[in-house]
Request: fold
Amino acid sequence: MITAHPGLPEFDYIRPTTLEEASNFLAQHPGEARAFIGGTDTFVRMRDGAWQDKYLVDVKGLPGMNDLTFIPAVGLRVGAAVNMNRLIASPEVKEHYPLLAEAAHTVASYQLRTRATIAGNICNASPAGDTIGAGLVYDAKIHVHGVEGDRVEALRAFFKGPGKTVLKPGDIVTAVEYPRPPQGAQGKYIKLGRNAIGDLAIVGVTAFGYPDRTSSGYRFLVVLASVAPTPLLIDMTLLSEKPLTPELIDEAAHVAMNSVKPIDDVRGSARYRSLMVRNMTRNALTEVWKKLGR
Amino acid sequence: MSFHRITVTVNGSAEIVDVPSNMTMLTMLREKLALTGTKNGCAAGECGACTVLWNGEPVNSCMVLAVECDGAEIVTVEGLMTDHQLDPIQQTMIDAGGMQCGFCTPGILISARALLDRKPKPTEPEIRDALVGNLCRCTGYTRIIDAVKMAAGD
Ligand SMILES: Cc1cc2nc3c(=O)[nH]c(=O)nc-3n(C[C@H](O)[C@H](O)[C@H](O)COP(=O)(O)OP(=O)(O)OC[C@H]3O[C@@H](n4cnc5c(N)ncnc54)[C@H](O)[C@@H]3O)c2cc1C
Ligand code: FES
Ligand code: FES
Reply:
């Protein structure tokens, strides 16, 4: 039989029924077994031959994985298996975490988002991961189940490099938790792809600001995607020190540009990326300033 | 490699299928169930030619394992017709001339049907957004969008 495209290589599909069973299996097969949820990164990498796992462990059905809950006093808890369409459609996410919905909406296409998850996007640890910026500015916490039980990791300390995280063999992310954003917070995600929608980011800029007791009256955070080994969080202290002006925002955009040394690749040159970091940071910050009631 | 016996409802009929771990839903539909309306354009989640309804939601069938379909309800392009009547979106696709080679059409029909199910009166930007994951190399999309508008009664 002739197939136009390679199929998936051989592996065993495993569906554990408890977190303990899943963690133990993964820990007993380091380098051979991989947890997966939507598979939208996993299947592509396995087809390419980049990943050669013997076992794919489906963790979607495990307890709590499909819960999406908002508790006003605590925040939003997104079970690891909640797909992006469900997240985007949630009225509570729209109301309290619009930046997260906006960022998730830029991921691929509707039918792919039926599979793609926030947990998978984070665990995949791509510098281009579109939902990571929102997670970093919201100061998300990652709930992990490992062989030694449950623990919580800060997203801000989660990434070790492209595709590398603090997760150890046996660790399963069970949920991503977003604390309540500061009162009056506003955000903006700008993604530059080769086409207007549905492509990976050549550069992604998340800007986030909220009223605070500073000289400018605000605090701002920026996250840059696709221009450093891991998504880069920048605390824009400059924008707290004196009253905001378009010139000060320009200066902040230069700070962003100078904090990264992007690389040349098939989707854009280093120089193009640098200039786009500057322009997009300026645009995103200006937009947030406007939303804050400039 | 392990095999799994699954029960799946496809276009309303219950099927029992033995599938290897690494078989995708797309391959199962085409090669085990002979439903070749669903197309393989890229096997990588990019083109949308393999889009089917999976428990009511559109999904790239190349991005789902067959074994994950145990207990699921799938609708493919072959299942859009009811009582020998074309689905409205099938009819308007013909009326608007929304296809040339037709390779993308099954996936587009499914994405459009799913959009109309969740939003009976979509705006043009909503139509375009819902079809982002369905590539067409022939038509230039305009007539496809017209077809969705017509099916929505505009
Ligand atoms: C056509 C296409 C377009 C895409 N476009 C975009 C885009 O525009 N923007 C973007 O950011 N991404 C994009 N992606 C990448 C991908 O869809 C996202 O990263 C998605 O969020 C991954 O989620 P998933 O559940 O499918 O991950 P999976 O493939 O299931 O997992 C991804 C990684 O995380 C690990 N993992 C998953 N779940 C867990 C868990 N619970 N515990 C521990 N480890 C876990 C897996 O082992 C694997 O290493 C695209 C992919 C495709 C195929
Ligand atoms: S064949 Fe599935 S998206 Fe192209
Ligand atoms: S009609 Fe040929 S690809 Fe769309």
In short: The interface with chain A takes residues 1-2, 4, 20-24, 27, 40, 42-45, 48, 51, 54, 57-60, 62-65, 67-68, 111, 114-115, 129-130, 132-134 of chain B (CB under 8 Å). The mean pLDDT of chain B is 97.
